[in-house]
Amino acid sequence: xxMSAADTAWMLVSTALVLLMTPAxxxxxxxxxxxxxxxxxxxxxxAALGFVGVAWAVIGYSxxxxxxWPLVGSASRAFLRGVGxxxxxxxxxxxxxxxQATFAIITAALVSGAIVERMRFGPYLAFIxxxxxxxxxxxxHWVWGGGWLASLGALDFAGGxxxxxxxxxxxxxxxxxxxPRKDYGRQAILPHSVPFTVLGAGLLWFGxxxxxxxxxxxxxxxxxxxxxxxxxxxxxxxxxxxxxxLRRTGKVTAVGGATAIVVGLVAIxxxxxxxxxxxxxxxxxxxxxxxxxxxxxxARTRLDDSLDVVAAHGLGGTVGALLTGVLAQKAWNGTADxxxxxxxxxxxxxxxxxxxxxxxxxxxxxxxxxxxxxxTALRAAAPDEGLGLxxxxxxxxxxxxxxxxxxxxADSVAGPVGAAITPVLQAGEGRP
Length: 432
What we know:
Blueprint: H1 5-32, H2 38-65, E1 87-88, E2 91-92, H3 93-111, H4 121-144, H5 148-152, H6 160-178, H7 194-213, H8 221-249, H9 254-268, H10 277-298, H11 309-327, H12 330-333, H13 344-375, H14 382-387, H15 389-394, H16 415-426
Antiparallel strand pairs: 1-2
Helix pairs in contact: 1-2, 1-3, 1-7, 2-3, 2-4, 3-4, 3-6, 4-6, 4-13, 6-11, 6-13, 7-8, 7-9, 8-9, 8-10, 9-10, 9-11, 10-11, 11-13
């Protein structure tokens, strides 16, 4: 197939847009945690750019997109062997690899939202690096790399199954393995910067146009359809969420609005290029209900999914994947109809893809967490958690302390944390 300059230009832009989503996620998550954990939370996203990006080039891309076997690709493209400027469809192969790398990066970063404010940074880096290779890459192969779900006809335009359900299942298991934060259920744990969160949501929506419309892999009518659905579905989710908030409390929170946008984006992701725009509106509206009530339910449990990755991404992705099997319309996508248009088999295939991804991701995530935990402690020590992971894991703080701050004597903090903050304390700054 001949390469297209227009397709290449669009995919260059889309790759940059999706890359922006990872620091945007850092802002979205960072605003939701307490001030003492701001930098650590942002760094959990930013670090994925490096560690997952390198792992993808070394082996992840080969396992995901080499034809290989039904369950996983081979290692024939490890270290990007044979990945050059030749055509992959209508764009350079190297660009296709880079675009897919941005998906692997943000999927791993999504998981961090369930384990913030308590997981040590070193073990976290080991976890996301290994997870991107042994969990993300095989599931990507199943759906997009010619694997067994692709052969069954599973529809996932831009990652409802591969990205969001996968990350949601991993987040649930990781949160259960780590256990709740020491203050969880004993005191209010409030967002320290709602504007950060709203900014992050806005940047995520902006980047998501590359995430969904870029998944058409060219400047095509399919990309235009995905682009419009990425505009309409979150808008519908935001409207429904707002109305539910007004009915329940009489108030509309900014955190709720930002969350609604993300839920709508997640839900339309698997369907973006497969459903018409009115179906996109319906899908976005319906997606609000399960995630909204799941958030309310989770807050009354002992499950400390800190930033509700399961409700927003796991459940939102599941709803989107299943509704793709209902609302897909061949008149729009040229591929397959859903149950509403006479093809109930598609819904069954979508359900199988959802279940298989959840089971595989959950099982492998549990194994990885336990394996890393057998070598080193996963959780920060209680004093470090109380002090905040910014200082204990990074030796710096998001916000400088001004006059009137209450100083912590350096000798009252043992070990490396004391060593890290001693220069700060000697300079006359401390933590209130």
